[in-house]
Amino acid sequence: MATYQEIVQKISELQKQAEEIKAREQATVIADIREKIEQYGLTADDLGFGSKAVAGKKASRKVPVRYRDSAGNTWTGRGKRPGWLTQALANGKTVDDFLIR
Hints:
The chain is 45% helix and 4% strand. By secondary structure, it is mainly alpha-helical. Strands 1-2 form a two-stranded antiparallel ribbon. The longest helix has 37 residues, at 4-40. The radius of gyration is 28 Å and the shape is elongated.
């Protein structure tokens, strides 16, 4: 019967073998995929990797701007307050001063 240390050593050797085999097979798979992409003229969008929304994910909606200053800086009211607003608040303004009505 094998000892614990012998089994651990064998596992380590098998993991190294598996990584080497995977690396060899991976190169072949990548070459095959590239050949198919070229053959069929596929794009990243065709494969679901492009800029279009991935199936199953919600399409993002544009959030309307809620705050604007006289210089044209805007903020939706979501996320961290922008620097221009933080500075204006430090100078005595209020958030309501920039609210778009």
